[in-house]
Amino acid sequence: MKKILNNPVDYVDEMLEGLIAAHPHFYRLHGDSGRVVVRAMPGHRGKVGLVTGGGSGHLPVFTGYVGAGLLDACAIGDVFASPSAEQMADAIRFADQGAGVLRLYGNYGGDIMNFDMAGELVEFEDITCTTVVLADDVASAPLAEREKRRGVAGMVYAFKIAGAAAESGRDLAAVTKVAQKAADACRSIGAALSPCTVPQVGKPTFHIAEDEMEMGMGIHGEPGVWVDKLRPADAIAGEMMDRLLADMPLAKGDRVSVMVNSLGATPPEELYILYRIVKARLEAAGATIVMPLVGRYATSMEMAGVSFTLLKLDPELEGLLKAPCECAFWRV
Amino acid sequence: MKKILNNPVDYVDEMLEGLIAAHPHFYRLHGDSGRVVVRAMPGHRGKVGLVTGGGSGHLPVFTGYVGAGLLDACAIGDVFASPSAEQMADAIRFADQGAGVLRLYGNYGGDIMNFDMAGELVEFEDITCTTVVLADDVASAPLAEREKRRGVAGMVYAFKIAGAAAESGRDLAAVTKVAQKAADACRSIGAALSPCTVPQVGKPTFHIAEDEMEMGMGIHGEPGVWVDKLRPADAIAGEMMDRLLADMPLAKGDRVSVMVNSLGATPPEELYILYRIVKARLEAAGATIVMPLVGRYATSMEMAGVSFTLLKLDPELEGLLKAPCECAFWRV
Amino acid sequence: MSIDRAAVVAGITRLAAAMERDFDLLNTADGALGDGDLGVTMTRGMRMVAEGAEALPDDLGKALLACAQAFTKSSGSSYGTLMATGLMAMAKALKGRESCEAAEFSGLVALARDAMQARGKAELGGKTVLDSLNAVALATAGVSDPAAVATAAVQGARAAMEAFRDKPATVGRARIFAEKSRGLDDPGMLAMTEVVVALAG
Amino acid sequence: MSIDRAAVVAGITRLAAAMERDFDLLNTADGALGDGDLGVTMTRGMRMVAEGAEALPDDLGKALLACAQAFTKSSGSSYGTLMATGLMAMAKALKGRESCEAAEFSGLVALARDAMQARGKAELGGKTVLDSLNAVALATAGVSDPAAVATAAVQGARAAMEAFRDKPATVGRARIFAEKSRGLDDPGMLAMTEVVVALAG
Ligand SMILES: Nc1ncnc2c1ncn2[C@@H]1O[C@H](COP(=O)(O)OP(=O)(O)O)[C@@H](O)[C@H]1O
Ligand SMILES: Nc1ncnc2c1ncn2[C@@H]1O[C@H](COP(=O)(O)OP(=O)(O)O)[C@@H](O)[C@H]1O
Ligand SMILES: [Mg+2]
Ligand SMILES: [Mg+2]
Ligand SMILES: [Mg+2]
Ligand SMILES: [Mg+2]
């Protein structure tokens, strides 16, 4: 897959420059690192701050979800690389409105260490921080070792729900609690059909044969559950639903939201073909689908593939999911 | 590029099934052909109807733009194939609220013949129809032969503006006139980096070498201006802007909207890199950018590449562009 | 022997069978420079027409209108649309009549040709189905014996294919490959020739 | 001879030069099973530290804190973050002091090791930079002569690499390829060995 870029080392900075030029009413840069994106219209004084951070190359994740009813600030690293603790600290400083800051991010080594460290840096400045780590990818570890799982598209739901909770005026403990509840109620699985290329590397990060796919692969190409011949859409959707429902069984009367997400190159036409099966399986389990999300919510640049995320709702989560939010990529 | 599908002959019907299952509050099927998508919440009685039609494989074009402040109905064919005149006639019948119907579609042989024919079919039913054909692709014919140009992403602007005019209560002549004005004020150009595969064909429609790109290629792979080595992003954007501005020069004080559109696989990161140059060039020409659109607005499934569309505004067009609209893919 | 509903139904039966037979032939001819779907268009279209044949009314105008609608329903391709257009033009001329004479054939084909030309906005002489129809209309002009009309129609269609084979395509998808198209039959002309042969019986 | 600001600045100069030299070595070592960026991390990090060396204060705690911040600014990679963590731990211990003795070296390294272990949540014995630091702390424990401390530190780091070479990786990206990692030096251990060698002068 070919890329449109200039000097690969400028990829992230030029991307951010264009993002902010195109959407100045949503985003602006904060601090002097050039890698901290914050709300152009900051939340009100006394609102709990929400920050995230992670590598570039996943738009709308992470930066895109800065906005009203969503995140206050985001520290963004090179493609697939953690931002620095200093950048995260800058994001936390911006996000703090006197009510403390929730750090909400995916379960990756560099991000964890840096967010921990960023928390220590801002501790001296009397900013209280809490943490919720997203670990929704069922393919990356068995249920018994949930804390080892990677964070993937489920973080979009967590951003949304925590964002709505913060916007509604809840305190840090309450926002953290409901964000953790959302994180715990999320299950994701991905299937990749093609690799993607990290600009500074210049060649695909991994390889999938022309007639094969990899079930359960991570969003940077981390190994999955199996590699096999490409299957029909209904079979792929069926197996992905099997694995999600085995991990988080649903019962009659349950209410769930579901995200059918393209990893990048896979077009919406294919997502809708898959959605038929997703819907049928959820309804067969007796569940009611609330606000299904079909589109590109968490990607890996031009990688072809899909992920499904289930979010099991209770009345509190459902209310927060449906609350208004607005960024350049998503509006509820 | 690999695809996720079942039997290729079911591709369009399954896609529509999923689309409507996911967004029942936006879309529903009308008539018995299974290929006419209409607003779930029809426009008010007396509103001018807006219909389009064309081949599948371009989501959000065409079907996706059915919605409030946009289209009333859309007839959708197989991938890259015109729907039938009967289907178009069904779309027209639904769209008619007693005030007549504007047919707004791209300049392709099959679509033109069928829409003409559909108009004759509904003439007997006392439905008045007008037509605006979109021909915005500057690469497909010289300015002197504008009527031969293909219709590409510019149709999104035309849908938006005509949709807002119809919603505001203007009559058929007025809606047609402003839609034609929008069509005349649009210029587009595309650059393709990779082909795409029509499901029923099963292999890529055309070929582009691994290190090459084609400037000015059409959205079904129709030949363009040149094939050359892949250039840096800034050079690509610069040449595309050169060609657009040569075709429709801008002067100091002009107000324009611009769409930086992915043909499918190209990720938003790359669009934002390109947008820097688009913005710089427009500002250098003295123009002010209004409501830039950066994303996937008109695609060819998993094709990699981009298109730029310029829309030169006057106060009337600007007002209509900014008026509210809502569909599953776009909200203003 | 005049042409009535029964003759139309018999013609449909022969034509539908011919198009089943020519599925690959026409796809291949179209595939050389176009998108290879002409066999699909004709086979599907004639299947739809044949399905409705039993229910056709005696009014020849209404009967041909029903055939036209079957074509429009089955495909949005250029050729299917042109076929429907031609049928509609003939339908309009025959509205309210339950029979017509062989001597009227030439005039009806000319009506179809003109309507299709208006629809597709292409010139005569462009190596398309229009040139086949034009040749058939000319060859059958002034002929009134049913058998002679049939023979003249087939000869006219075949002669047009011969005459245009080495010219470049100017219309539709093949236009892009105008030079390559020299020496190849236009798929639309080929299809119309097979249609005429099948109708001639 | 005690360690003061001047000694720190001199150490930084040697270390920065060493990391420019080892850019490819470390990238290649990391690239075998990881993402090949360890040379980038160390070279960029030490460039940032060296840029700030002139402006370092006499307070050793504040000086090392500035070094830690330079590392965090330059990279978010695991190793850069661990380096910053270790430096911060030593900075805290030395806060308010303008010199320290060679005899304190072992204890300071142990503090860094423990802080980095807390940060990365990895066990000792996992074939990581922690095992290098642990070996250095043990090898220099109870030694107070500056030259003897330097020699012991280098020996300790090298011995740890030897000892762990044939074990499987258990931490970081290479963990996925645990079996393949046998026989290969852990890139983080290799980097720390080069750091210790450069500091020893
Ligand atoms: N505008 C036109 N006028 C007359 N004939 C046309 C026109 N366009 C196409 N044709 C005829 O239709 C044939 C191709 O039909 P078809 O395969 O259905 O086209 P497509 O697949 O491009 O829609 C051509 O060989 C030509 O005879
Ligand atoms: N959690 C951890 N605890 C201790 N050491 C670690 C940890 N994670 C990584 N390392 C060390 O860091 C080295 C890799 O560093 P680096 O290339 O920066 O990692 P990455 O590129 O994955 O962020 C490993 O060789 C190992 O010595
Ligand atoms: Mg064809
Ligand atoms: Mg066709
Ligand atoms: Mg590394
Ligand atoms: Mg790294």
TrEMBL record, chains A, B:
Domain DhaK: 7-330
Keywords assigned by UniProt, alphabetized: ATP-binding, Kinase, Nucleotide-binding, Transferase
An example Gene Ontology CC term for this record: cytosol
GO molecular-function terms, A-Z: ATP binding; glycerone kinase activity
Biological processes, Gene Ontology terms: glycerol catabolic process
EC number: 2.7.1.29
Pfam families per record: Dak1 (PF02733)
Cited Gene3D superfamilies: Dihydroxyacetone kinase, domain 1, Dihydroxyacetone kinase, domain 2
Cell division in keyword set: no
Protein name: Glycerone kinase
TrEMBL record, chains C, D:
Pfam families for this protein: Dak2
One of the GO biological process terms: glycerol catabolic process
Position of the signal peptide: none
Cellular component, GO annotation: cytosol
Annotated DhaL domain residues: 6-201
Alphabetic keyword roster: Kinase, Transferase
Listed GO MF terms: glycerone kinase activity
Superkingdom of the source species: Bacteria
InterPro entries the UniProt entry points to: DhaL_dom, DhaL_dom_sf, Dihydroxyacetone_Kinase
Keyword presence, Transferase: yes
SUPFAM superfamilies xref list: DhaL-like
Name this polypeptide is given: Dak phosphatase
Organism: Rhodobacter ferrooxidans
